[in-house]
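Title: Prediction job returns without error message
Component: structure pipeline
Severity: low
Priority: P3
Assignee: unassigned

Description:
Job completed but the reporter wants confirmation the result is attached to the right record. Sequence as submitted:
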Amino acid sequence: WSQRRGLLLACARAAPSPTIAVWDLATERCAQRLMSGLDGPEHHLTALSEVHSQHSPAVVAAGATDGSIRLFDLRQGSLCAHAMHSHHTAAIVSLQSQAEDAQALPGLSNFSRATLVSGCSAGEICIWEPRTWTPRATSDAHRSALATLAVHPRAPVIAAGSRNNFIKVLGLDGEVTNLIRYHDGFLGSRIGPVSCVAFHPRRLLMAAGSTDSTVSIFTSATRPRRMA
């Protein structure tokens, strides 16, 4: 979903190659259909994201099962010059982008935005440099199957969830800053296999959903507890 353009992006496993359908919600019509260029029935698209960058004003990133990331220019309806990246060794799980003009949260100093963050099922995470489309930072700290990935829109924070019952919190330099395995308190139970994570757009709050039908809300603030 592209909020600023009013477009809905959808993957389709059409023969002979998967496509990206670009829907204009104002007219309720399919405005474009982009050919992915993937070969073979075993490959398909697994993630889509609009790229928020002044260097790439109308670019969509698409991740595939072969670990490649392809960039499409919506103005031309075709692959960009920097069309394929093969840093990842497994299927792309998620693609996320931070808007360069998004104001940082109160109390946070200005930081270099992550134009594109990618994560694959093998646990590799890449933060890409938009001028050259090479990895600005990488992390293999997950070291297990990655199930989901989210980037805070106004803070230098990445959350990576695993079906092995934990969430890793990273900075935009790829360094791990926290590991969440249990719910709050010394009596807190172990969190379930993580299936999705999301950040509040204006606060340092994170929601995580698990396959055990549990939704948890995590905060960065430490609340003092009163002793009885």
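Comment from assignee: result matches the submitted record. DSSP finds no helices and 18 strands in the chain.
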